[in-house]
Every structure is written in C-alpha cells, then in structure tokens.
Write a structure and sequence with these properties.
Helix content is 46%, strand content 9%. The longest helix has 20 residues, at 54-73. It has 2 domains: 3-168, no CATH class; 184-337, Intergrase catalytic core (hpI Integrase, Chain A, Orthogonal Bundle). It is mainly alpha-helical and 401 residues long. The protein is built from 16 helices and 9 strands. Strand 5 (195-198) and strand 6 form a beta hairpin. The protein has a 3-stranded antiparallel beta sheet, with no helix packed on it. It has a two-stranded antiparallel sheet with strand order 1-2. The chain has a two-stranded antiparallel ribbon with strand order 3-4. This is Tyrosine-type recombinase/integrase. InterPro entries: CB, DNA_brk_join_enz, Integrase-like_cat_sf, Integrase_catalytic, Integrase_recombinase_N, Integrase_SAM-like_N, Tyrosine_recombinase_XerCD. Pfam families: Phage_int_SAM_1 (PF02899), Phage_integrase (PF00589). Residues 177-389 form the Tyr recombinase domain.
Length: 401
C-alpha cells in the first residue's frame, strides 16, 4: 500500500519520518515496493514549482496515496482508467475501505463529504496535469463546457465562452455548512482575558502578544499563517497617514507558514497601530533590541517564555493557547479556531454594506467568486430580512401613484 513520506525538496525519501532540508519539508508517495511513484512525483514536483503551500502538497500526496492503493489493489495501470473506476474509488472513499479486502455490510462510519471531495480533487488535479502533458486517458476525464455556474461572470467571460472551459467529469458535491462567526462580546472577553491596561501604572498586564494577535485577526481578517509570518518591516506605522500592513509572500518561514494569496496591503485603525507600538516597547524591555540582529527582519509574533527567545511563534502554540483559553472562558465556542476571526471580519464588513469586491480584495481572495461562494448568504439574509416587516410593505399598496 502506498505511503506518504516526508522528503527534502527535490530529494529522495530517507525514512518514514518527517525530514527537514535547507528548503523545508515536502511529501511524496511510495508504492507497495517502497519505490517513489514516478507519475505522482512529477505532479507533486509541478505543485512545488508553482510554489504551492506545503500543506497543499501534503494533502494532495495523501489523496494520491489512496488512489495508488486503489489501483494496486485492482492491478490496474494509472493511465488505463475510466469514469467508472473513479466512481468506484469515490464509493470506497465514502465507506473508508479503499483497497480493503473486505467491506463491512453494516456500513460503519461514513467519511465526510469535504474529506472525500479533497481526495478526489487531488486525483483530478493529477490527471489534469497529465492531460496537459499529452496523456490521452487523462484528457477523457475532462469535458469542455461553455457556461459558468453561479451568478458571477468575470470580465473576460465572453472570451472564455467562445473557447470553452475545461471541467472535471467527476465532482463531489459538498453540503455547505454555516459560516461560523464570533459575537462582539466573545471577542472582547478573549482580548481582556489576554491583557488589560493598568492606568495607575501605565503598563499592560498579561499576555500582550496574544491580545495583539486576536485584535489583528479581528480587525484585518488575516489568516493565522499570514499574521505569524509578519515581520516588523511589514507594519507601516501611521505617521500622519493611515497605518497599513503589507502581506508579503515569503517561502522561508521556519515553520512553513506563508501568505497564501501573495502580496496585498491592509489598512488598519489607530488603536490597533498603538497596540502594536506597545508590543514593540514590551519586546525592547525584554531585550529584543539587543539580542535581535536585524529588527526589520524579525518576526512580530515571537517566543518569550518557551523555546528560543524571539524566535517565530509556532501555529501549534497558538492553537494550544486558544484551547486553554476556551477551557477558562465558558462564553467562547468549544469549536472556535483562529480562522473564525476571518469569517467574522468578512461577515461584519458585508453587513455594514461594504461591496463584495472590496471585501474580496481585503481578504486576499484570488477570485471574487470565492468570496461570493463563502459569504453570499450574508447579503442574501440581509436582503431577505427586509421582507420581514410585512405591514410596512403592504401599507404602500393602497397609496396613489
């Protein structure tokens, strides 16, 4: 059965453990004889060459490992498959029995639609890549369509309609889930639990680092990885102008976090800017101005109490800290993650009447359709809520023109 193993960029598998090289870590797929699966590795190398996130490569490698297990279990060549084979694979994914010798009759557990869709997306991306490389069987797994689902049409849609658009013949429909948001009171409780201002002493008491992080996520809608990847040079303090943060794509973070959507600027308010200034002052009091060689290149969110001082903060540390806070603060949702701040930010902007395309640019979505697909219900609910005042609507019926 194929295994997903860690390897260095462009290197060979050295062990079944995660291996870190100079360029970071990545993933590949091994066949049942522990040889690297060539067609899969070529596709994963393509993903690396276009600077896909390491987490994307990892997820795709896992999906393709399952697909290769499926092929090996049937003694079937990867370039001799059809739509029926893909349908069988999807069914096995749902039942959690890919390449199993026996299947439980009672059905047992059922894989989540989102998980199945993620695995299928990896397989279809693999075949789409090989279709572009001239593999005929891969080309048959896609069809040319002349329409685009949804109400949004891009600027050059008329050109795409003439040429047609490539669409996968196998799609897994995922039931949309309600977008989780935080209430203003819940965000305030968490901020105050992290750190509070002591007027008599003129200092902050508590974890100012995490108060700054939660406030930043709340007011900017940034992803956690984007926030943890910020360096001091990226924060342009307001000196007579509106303060702004520059989100810059950098692939060299020691913990693998990166700006998913590339470069963008996010303007922030004066209160958040002052909070950042207080954090800089706290870092200097802790000795960062002496120990850190290049201040501009240093990470804003760094270690203070554990690990190497002033080294970049790990995402795992943030999740662990938030888990502890959830246990201490009953008002916080048990399922809350840092990404809820991003959903909350977008929802608040849309309810305030900010145009969808502006919200899309602030969030860093590559396509406004992504924003529409995720948050269309917000504006729709706001419009439908206007229909609730039925008496006001019917009062106008009898008025003369």
């Amino acid at each position: 059965m194929p295994l997903t193993l860690s390897t260095r960029w462009g290197g060979v598998v050295t062990s079944s453990q995660r291996v870190r090289g100079e360029g970071g870590c990545t993933w590949t797929v091994l066949a049942d004889d522990f040889s690297v699966v060539g067609p899969v590795e070529r596709y994963l190398e393509y993903l690396r060459s276009v600077d896909s996130s390491p987490n994307t490569v990892k997820a795709y490698a896992r999906g393709l490992a399952l697909w290769w297990s499926f092929l090996e279990g049937r003694s079937q060549a990867w370039n001799a498959i059809g739509v029926t084979d893909l349908g069988t694979f999807v069914g096995q994914l749902r039942r959690g029995c890919v390449a199993a010798e026996a299947v439980a009759i009672d059905g047992g557990g059922r894989a989540a639609d989102a998980t199945v869709a993620s695995r299928v997306r990896a397989v279809m991306g693999f075949y789409r890549y090989h279709a572009a490389c001239g593999v005929e069987v891969a080309d048959r797994l896609y069809e040319t369509v002349n329409s685009r689902p949804g109400g949004y049409l891009p600027f050059l849609e008329h050109v795409a309609r003439k040429l047609g658009r490539r669409s996968s013949v196998v799609n897994v429909r995922v039931r949309p889930k309600p977008t989780p948001v935080l209430l203003p009171g819940q965000m305030t409780v968490l901020r105050n639990a992290e750190a509070a201002w002591v007027p008599d002493e003129g200092v902050w008491s508590g974890e100012l680092r995490y108060r700054l992080l939660w406030t930043l996520l709340e007011e900017t809608g940034m992803r956690l990885g984007e926030a943890l990847g910020l360096r001091h040079r990226d924060w342009q303090a307001g000196t007579g102008t509106t303060a702004r943060i520059e989100v810059v794509h950098r692939p060299d973070h020691p913990h693998g976090v990166r700006a998913k959507s590339g470069y963008r600027r996010i303007f922030v308010g004066s209160a958040l800017d002052r909070l950042y200034g207080d954090w800089v002052w706290a870092l200097c009091e802790a000795g960062a101005d002496v120990e850190v060689e290049d201040w501009d290149d240093a990470y804003i969110f760094c270690n203070l109490h554990r690990g190497r001082r002033f080294a970049p903060l790990r995402p795992e540390s943030v999740y662990k800290h938030l888990g502890a806070r959830r246990g201490q603060l009953p008002s916080l949702p048990r399922e809350m993650t840092p990404h809820w701040y991003r959903h909350t930010h977008a929802t608040a902007l849309l309810l305030a009447g900010v145009p969808m395309h502006v919200v899309s640019r602030r969030l860093g979505h590559r396509d406004v359709q992504t924003t529409i697909n995720t948050y269309a219900h917000v504006t729709e609910d706001a419009d439908l809520r206007a229909c609730a005042d039925w008496q006001r609507i019917t009062q106008s019926w009898g008025r003369p023109e």
